[in-house]
Amino acid sequence: MKTYRYPSVLTIAGFDGSGGAGIQADMKTISALGCYATSVLTALPVQNTTGVRKIYPIPVEAVSDQIEAILDDVFPDAIKIGMVHTPELVETIVKTLGKYKKVPIVFDPVMVATSGHRLIEEETISTIVQQLFPVASVITPNMDEAAILAGMEVKTLDEMRTAGERIKTLGCNSILLKGGHQETQTITSLFLDQDHNFHAFHAEKFATQNTHGSGCTLSSAIASYIAQEKDLYSSVELAQNYVYEAIKHGRDVQTGKGNGPLNHFFNPQKLIKHELV
Predict the structure, then answer these.
(1) Mean pLDDT by 10 residues, the chain (277 residues)
(2) Residue 184, pLDDT score
(3) Where is the Pyridoxamine kinase/Phosphomethylpyrimidine kinase domain (predicted)?
(4) Count of Cβ atoms closer than 10 Å to residue 46 Cβ
(5) Considering only CA atoms, which of 165, 158, 202, 153 is closest in space to residue 180?
(6) What backbone torsions phi and psi does residue 207 show, to the nearest 5 degrees?
(7) What pTM, to 2 d.p., does this model score?
């Protein structure tokens, strides 16, 4: 009898009990795109669609133990890293992953929630830049996060380009600057690749409050397409299309009293099976 394996994606991220962001959004996305989802919890935010109320930390030893348990057993084809809110947590994740074979990493520098809440400690940023940026295949900041990283205002497309170039000098391999906060009718995101080339992705804006977890969804979608052995540019392009459609198909649904979730399962794929040789 033939045996098979699923393309596997590990998400290392925070919790969202309301189901729209964090590990919950990641696992929905990975599953909807036909991959097998595993997870490591980094923090326990108490939140709903209206915002974050409190964040309970997870001991760093518990994070390290979780990573080792997964990588010793269900080794991933790609890794998505989301909420890392302390320097010790960043160091622990990088050190633990460094014990294993290198895997493509998509890092979503979660610093500001959709609701506007700041989610990261100030001293964590330099540790992220020094230790996590160099090992990530791509980072996916939104405009608020790009402004923090670049140390400048980021409101326009030109400012996004300047910020991208500044962030690249911090040691990133490639950057997807998300343009979802633009006030123009057409939203433009910019992908700055490893060779310093910019690629623009355009999408028409439509009215909706249901964008909670869109950044988590995008980064885990990129990781899912990488796990399917697509190149980085194609993975970014396909992931952007997936998020656009997930927002579009969930725009007329009310879930909660604030920013509602995406419709991750607008077109779910069956689990992909690769034959083991």
Answers:
(1) 96 96 97 98 93 91 98 98 93 98 95 64 87 96 92 93 96 93 88 94 90 95 98 97 97 95 97 92
(2) 84
(3) 16-263
(4) 12
(5) 202
(6) -75, 125
(7) 0.96
- Sign (positive/negative) of CA torsion 46, 17, 249, 237? positive
Alpha helices of the chain — where are they, by DSSP H? 22-32, 60-71, 87-97, 124-127, 143-150, 157-168, 214-227, 232-250
C-alpha 225/C-alpha 102 separation (Å) is 17
DSSP readout, 78-92? EEEE----SHHHHHH
The torsion angles phi and psi of 120, rounded to 5 degrees, stand at -130, 145
Which residues neighbour 134 within 8 Å (Cβ) at sequence distance 6 or greater? 171, 173
Helix, strand, coil percentages for the chain (3-state, nearest 5): 35, 20, 45
Q: Is the Cβ–Cβ distance between 70 and 8 less than 8 Å?
A: no
- What does the longest C-alpha to C-alpha distance in the chain come to? 59
DSSP state of 255: -
> What pLDDT, on a 0 to 100 scale, did the predictor assign at position 272?
97
What DSSP state is assigned to residue 268?
Answer: P
Half-sphere exposure of 91 (CA within 13 A, CB side): 10
Domain ranges of the chain: 4-137+206-265
- The span from the CA of 62 to the CA of 197, in Å, is 39
The Cα–Cα gap between 79 and 219 comes to 10
Q: How many Å is the Cα radius of gyration of the chain?
A: 17
Count of residues in the chain? 277
Beta strands 186-192 and 175-177 are antiparallel
CA dist 106 to 4, 22, 86, Å? 25, 14, 19
